[in-house]
């Protein structure tokens, strides 16, 4: 009965599957004519195959017409066929209990494939009978088919006669790209693959044994589809869509990127190097045309020198077709650029900055006849001052094919320069174009040394007998072989003997701006060209240091500290036992020899510099059973000497490793644990630490071992049976990253993943590749290789692999929003909208995108003003005057009237404050004073107990089977609380973990400065190396979670002057407000005689929070001047005299008006208190608590700089005060040392008594003088007028007499020979002239008749 029930259920499942296939087939076949015509037109336009696709469409239409004419005959044959099938099915159900075909017990793939094609004679013969029945059903339609179709069915009959074996082979041959034999593909895949099959059939290249449309379904007229089919097809598509997306993701698709300069955008197969660091003026002309866009045309818009070109490819498919398909299905790459913080925090602000952009599609410039040719996506490649290391994450927007996220490194290479002929040249040496095989085949692997997360360029030496190195700025995604331009000296002396000279570069270390190498006993360094980092320019050549020393080893310091990077040089010869400690600050290199007193080889003495922590045993301890041994000097030892070779220290978990032919580890540097899993016959050559809980070891025999920190199990990854299995699978998959002959060059971690740099030899093709070491997969293979047990299942013994993982599923829940703890600032910038019908952009729209991204980051860099804006957002000032016109700009774009052909959406450019947590712990956690981080771990367990009599019908978990532990690297700094909760209904256990700061390991510091490194390790007991989580990408380690923790003042916090609240309360308290006559909206004025009430804000630039500062602070005036141009900084003595209430020189500038118990002062050797007394380390000033009752009264006493200020105009004197507000030493509520320096503009400053009297006397004197002058003018004016008139008459008389005399003299000379001189008065002359004028008139009157 049970077997019959199982068979009946299986029959129902097969029936439902067949119905689903029939629905799909009907949809595919009935929509074939329209799809054929549309497909023919589309492909003809894209690929230029017009003739072939028109022929396909014609054949498709002919076939459909024949099908319609034969529908009546087919319907009758279908009816008979169904009756015969039902009869045979009835007979088959009777004998199924007695005879069961092997194919029914476990349906074979062949049977499922044939089951999709129709039902045959019945179910009695299983799936094979169905296939034969379909063949006979196809024979009945011979009259309505063409000769080619008859040939196809003939081939089907031949396959049916030959048996399932040949049929399976043909299916395998024809099923290119299908998921597998017998697996039912998704409807979308069938439609896509059906198009290719139909095209092959129509062109006569082959035929399929699958009927063109179902034989057991009612006929539907051509061009019509029943409504029920449409609904069912839509529902089926929606249900299976997620499965299709996962299937696409599993198709081995990956992102690709390249850098292009502005002038090379749109060119295919072009890539540039990232070395230019200054902005370029290539977008200004485009922005000038955007007259009706919401931008300020008065601003200067610049751009970055590079664009990021993006596309993707899948295995076995052309990239150009995939990119077009992705664009037409809505795919848009989302690019997240992360800028790493600089080393020198004194020059640059420490911040965790990201910008998220969406790539814009652009056609290539190559000529093409189709509408959509080759294309790529582009985004601006931003560059930020102070950051030379950038990581780029490329992901999908969720539409189109789902491509896994991929991370790249794009770092600035400061060791490249542009030649006059526009070619690139390395400044450290000459590039070698060919890779000789003897460079790598005969060499051993060597460590890759660099400053973690800070080195933009990595270098690797060790090439035999060649002064060459490998250089990369993309973490070996690509690289260059450089022959260095060094002198290659061989210096030997009696204290530095050299038995052999070699040109090999032995040690290489890369820092943020400097490269170090060692050749023989010589050490060189080279400083790169990084103007965005430092003002010091490089010398352009290698500089030799420690010229008088014999250096036998260079050692790196992986982490920077105190704004500098460090290296160590170990000398030999006369100075052996000393260490030269090198410091690199802004490209400047200095070395200091330590210890200062004597060499450690002369005997270690406990001094201030040296102390004995631990004495290493001479021999290796003897261990037989346990995995580790705590060395306590009481254990037994072997005869094998213990030879240490090096040390490795992780500052996050405080774990120190001493390695050689053993591996010792210690958490306190005093008690050491011997890891017994590592064989004493091997010797460690170098150690690679991820600093996230993983450790890899490379031996002198090129073996690779793996250790998970927090456990003592070491796993041999290579060579091993697990590696052999993985290698065989990769060769089977035809991976290009694995060959039979390969040489490992180096091993390194990148984002917590282990990578190899391997030299592959395959015939005449030699390559140097970077490949992932699948640690988790290899560990799984190691577990599968262990012994198995036989467990009874029913009547059989089944081999079962032991699973030592104590849980089945591990999930993280209740994770808080990450930005508050990771301190990641993220901006969003989307490309401007275009009016192109297919959504493509052009060079102008990309230029606009470039300029907008540049201006967005410029606003971020300038958002450090001491005066707080009314809205706490860097982009608020960008759109504050345009926001009210947003609907108008949208109206223009909706009607395609926007100038420049682009639409700028103001909401597409801003800062993101509400990022949601993902299902994993953050990359790092910042903790301020007494802050905490809480999350939950949900574990689904394996073990259950039987139902108890008291709790009938219930089951509960054995709580003792699952335990969670938390390991703290510095328990005196942080503490953790774990709360366990059993979830019986979900068979799970939930652990709530709360990590809290203990307020004991940090005093106060500037934001992001001098942070304390520590870590938290959350581990499930018994899960290390045994638990794995399967994902759609790759397996991951489960049960061990290591999170770095940074204690101190988190980056992104600042103190700002709240000018809005200050002015409001100022008006309220003083009943009025008088601004300057020339008002400045950025800096309002305050009247001298009014009380000043300052308020301050604590702004979080990461989360967008802005709240009033409620702690205590010190208010000091540290500079000032009568004008902004004449402001000077005061000395320490002047600051004390001008601000301290204990000053006795009458020099105070200000004082506290409303003294409350919340302020006090003190000076050394003398206690002075008013209210509550507080003690400071140095000179004390007013300690002001943020309270409304505390105001500042301006004094400007006699000896203060603002006293007796000379007015610059007729208005009252003004003064600019440079004010420092700091909470250092007076506020215990935070680790942050807030220091705010801002200017205060004070007007109406009174004059001194002397200057006032002087000005009064001068004013009175001037006034009296003006009055006296006025009176004098009034009394003497008539006399002056009369005198002036007389004087003028005399002058005129003199001039007239002189003129007349000249005329008379000249006439006398002409008329008579004798000259008689006489004088005639001027008055007489005038009378004579009048008389002479009257005589002619009288003569004329006499002559007239009347």
Automatic annotation (TrEMBL):
It comes from the Eukaryota. This is Cation channel sperm-associated protein subunit gamma. It comes from Orycteropus afer afer.
């Amino acid at each position: 009965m049970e077997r019959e029930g199982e068979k009946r259920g299986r029959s129902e499942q097969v029936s439902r599957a067949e119905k689903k296939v029939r629905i799909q087939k009907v949809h595919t076949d009935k929509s074939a004519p329209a799809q054929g015509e549309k497909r023919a037109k589309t492909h003809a336009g894209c690929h230029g195959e017009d003739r072939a696709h028109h022929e396909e469409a014609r054949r498709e239409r002919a076939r459909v017409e024949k099908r319609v004419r034969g529908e009546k005959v087919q319907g009758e044959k279908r009816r008979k066929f169904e009756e015969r099938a039902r009869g045979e099915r009835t007979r088959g159900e009777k004998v199924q209990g007695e005879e069961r075909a092997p194919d029914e017990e476990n349906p074979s793939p062949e049977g499922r494939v044939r089951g999709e094609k129709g039902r045959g004679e019945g179910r009695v013969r299983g799936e094979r009978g169905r296939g034969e029945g379909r063949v006979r059903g196809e024979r009945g339609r011979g009259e309505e088919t063409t000769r080619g179709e008859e040939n196809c069915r003939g081939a089907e009959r031949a396959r049916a006669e030959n048996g399932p074996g040949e049929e399976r082979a043909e299916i395998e041959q024809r099923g290119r790209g299908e998921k597998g034999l017998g697996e039912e593909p998704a409807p979308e895949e069938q439609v896509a693959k059906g198009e290719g099959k139909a095209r092959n059939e129509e062109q006569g290249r082959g035929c399929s044994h699958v009927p063109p449309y179902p034989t057991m379904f009612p006929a539907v007229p051509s061009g019509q589809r029943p409504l029920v089919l449409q609904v069912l097809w839509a529902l089926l598509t929606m249900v299976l869509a997620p499965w299709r997306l996962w299937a696409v993701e599993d198709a081995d698709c990956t992102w690709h990127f390249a850098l292009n300069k502005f002038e090379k955008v749109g060119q295919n197969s072009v890539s540039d190097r990232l070395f230019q660091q200054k902005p370029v003026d290539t977008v200004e002309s485009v922005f000038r045309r955007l007259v009706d866009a919401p931008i300020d045309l008065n601003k200067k818009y610049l751009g970055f020198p590079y664009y990021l070109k993006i596309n993707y490819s899948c295995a076995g498919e052309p990239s150009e077709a995939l990119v077009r398909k992705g664009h037409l299905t809505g795919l848009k790459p989302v690019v997240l650029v992360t800028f790493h913080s600089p080393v020198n925090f004194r020059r640059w602000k420490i911040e965790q900055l990201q910008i998220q952009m969406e790539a814009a599609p652009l056609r290539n410039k190559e000529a093409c006849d189709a509408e959509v040719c080759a294309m790529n996506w582009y985004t601006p490649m931003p560059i930020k001052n102070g950051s030379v290391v950038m990581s780029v994450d490329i992901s999908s927007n969720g539409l189109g094919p789902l491509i896994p996220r991929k991370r790249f490194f794009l770092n600035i290479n400061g060791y490249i320069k542009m030649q006059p002929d526009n070619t690139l040249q390395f400044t450290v040496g000459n590039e070698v174009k060919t890779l000789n095989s003897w460079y790598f085949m005969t060499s051993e692997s060597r460590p890759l040394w660099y400053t973690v997360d800070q080195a933009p360029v990595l270098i690797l030496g060790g090439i035999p007998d060649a002064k060459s190195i490998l250089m990369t700025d993309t973490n070996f995604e690509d690289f260059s072989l450089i022959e260095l331009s060094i002198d290659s000296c061989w210096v030997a002396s009696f204290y530095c003997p050299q038995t052999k000279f070699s040109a090999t570069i032995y040690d290489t270390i890369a820092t943020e701006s400097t490269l170090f190498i060692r050749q023989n006993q010589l050490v060189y360094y080279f400083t790169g060209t990084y103007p965005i980092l430092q003002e010091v320019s490089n010398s352009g050549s290698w500089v030799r240091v420690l010229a008088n020393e014999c250096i036998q080893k260079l050692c790196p310091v992986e982490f920077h500290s105190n704004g500098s990077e460090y290296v160590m040089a170990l000398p030999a010869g006369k100075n052996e036992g000393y260490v030269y400690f090198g410091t690199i600050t802004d490209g400047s290199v200095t070395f200091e020899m330590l210890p200062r007193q004597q060499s450690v080889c002369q005997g270690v003495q406990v001094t201030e510099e040296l102390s004995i922590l631990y004495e290493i045993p001479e021999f290796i301890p003897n261990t037989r059973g346990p995995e580790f041994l705590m060395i306590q000097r009481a254990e037994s030892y072997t005869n094998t000497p213990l030879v240490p070779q090096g040390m490795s220290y992780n500052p996050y978990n405080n774990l120190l490793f001493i390695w050689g032919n053993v591996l010792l580890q210690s958490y306190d540097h005093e008690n050491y644990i011997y890891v017994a899993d590592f064989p004493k016959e091997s010797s460690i050559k170098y150690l690679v630490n991820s600093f996230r809980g993983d450790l890899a070891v490379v031996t002198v025999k090129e073996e690779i071992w793996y250790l998970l920190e927090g456990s003592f199990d070491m796993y041999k990854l290579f060579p091993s049976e697990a590696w052999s299995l993985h290698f065989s699978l990769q060769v089977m998959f035809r991976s290009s990253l694995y060959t039979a002959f390969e040489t490992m060059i180096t091993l390194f971690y990148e984002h917590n993943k282990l990578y190899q740099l391997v030299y592959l030899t395959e015939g005449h093709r030699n390559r140097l590749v970077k490949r992932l070491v699948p640690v988790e997969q290899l560990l799984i293979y190691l577990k599968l290789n262990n012994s198995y047990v036989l467990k009874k299942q029913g009547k059989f013994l089944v081999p079962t692999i032991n699973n030592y993982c104590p849980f089945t599923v591990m999930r993280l829940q209740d994770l808080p929003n990450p930005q508050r703890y990771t301190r990641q600032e993220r901006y969003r910038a989307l490309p401007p909208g275009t009016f192109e019908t297919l959504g493509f952009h052009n060079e102008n729209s990309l230029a606009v995108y470039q300029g907008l991204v540049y201006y967005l980051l410029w606003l971020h860099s300038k958002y450090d003003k001491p005066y707080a804006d009314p809205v706490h957002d860097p982009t608020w000032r960008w759109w504050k005057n345009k926001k009210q016109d947003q609907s108008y700009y949208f109206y223009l774009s909706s009607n395609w009237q926007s100038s420049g052909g682009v639409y700028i959406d103001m909401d597409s450019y801003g800062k993101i404050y509400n990022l949601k947590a993902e299902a994993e712990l953050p990359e790092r956690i910042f903790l301020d004073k007494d802050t905490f981080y809480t999350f939950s771990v949900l574990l689904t367990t394996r073990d259950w107990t039987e139902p108890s009599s008291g709790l009938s019908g219930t089951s509960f978990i054995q709580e003792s089977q699952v335990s969670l532990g938390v390991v703290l690297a510095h328990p005196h700094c942080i503490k953790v609380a774990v709360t366990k909760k059993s979830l019986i209904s979900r068979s799970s256990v939930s652990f709530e973990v709360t990590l809290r700061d203990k307020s004991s390991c940090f005093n106060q510091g500037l934001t992001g400065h001098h942070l304390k490194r520590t870590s938290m390790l959350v581990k499930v007991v018994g899960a290390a190396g045994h638990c794995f989580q399967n994902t759609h990408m790759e397996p991951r380690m489960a049960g061990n979670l290591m999170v770095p923790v940074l204690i101190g003042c988190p980056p992104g916090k600042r103190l700002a002057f709240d000018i809005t609240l200050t002015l409001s309360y100022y008006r309220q308290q003083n009943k009025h407000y008088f601004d300057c006559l020339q008002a400045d909206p950025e800096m309002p004025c305050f009247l001298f005689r009014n009380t000043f009430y300052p308020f301050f804000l604590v702004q979080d630039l990461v989360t967008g929070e802005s709240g009033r500062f409620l702690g205590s602070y010190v208010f000091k005036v540290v500079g000032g001047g009568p004008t902004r141009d004449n402001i000077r900084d005061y000395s320490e003595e002047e600051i004390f005299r001008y601000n301290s209430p204990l000053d006795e020189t009458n020099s105070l500038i200000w004082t506290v008006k409303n003294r409350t118990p919340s302020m006090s002062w003190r000076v050394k050797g003398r206690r002075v208190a008013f209210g509550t007394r507080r003690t400071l380390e140095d000179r004390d000033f007013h300690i002001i608590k943020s309270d409304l009752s505390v105001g500042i009264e301006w004094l400007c006493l006699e000896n203060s700089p603002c006293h007796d200020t000379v007015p610059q105009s007729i208005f009252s004197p003004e003064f600019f005060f440079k004010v420092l507000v700091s909470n250092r030493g007076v506020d215990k509520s935070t680790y942050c040392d807030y220091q705010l320096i801002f200017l205060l503009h004070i007007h109406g400053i009174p004059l001194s008594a002397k200057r006032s009297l002087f000005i009064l006397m001068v004013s009175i004197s001037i006034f009296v003088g003006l009055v006296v002058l006025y009176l004098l003018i009034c009394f003497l004016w008539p006399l002056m007028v009369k005198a002036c008139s007389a004087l003028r008459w005399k002058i005129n008389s003199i001039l007239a007499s002189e003129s007349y005399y000249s005329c008379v003299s000249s006439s006398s000379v002409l008329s008579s020979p004798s000259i008689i001189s006489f004088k005639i008065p001027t008055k007489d002359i005038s009378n004579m002239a009048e008389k002479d004028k009257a005589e002619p008139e009288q003569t004329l009157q006499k002559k007239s008749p009347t």
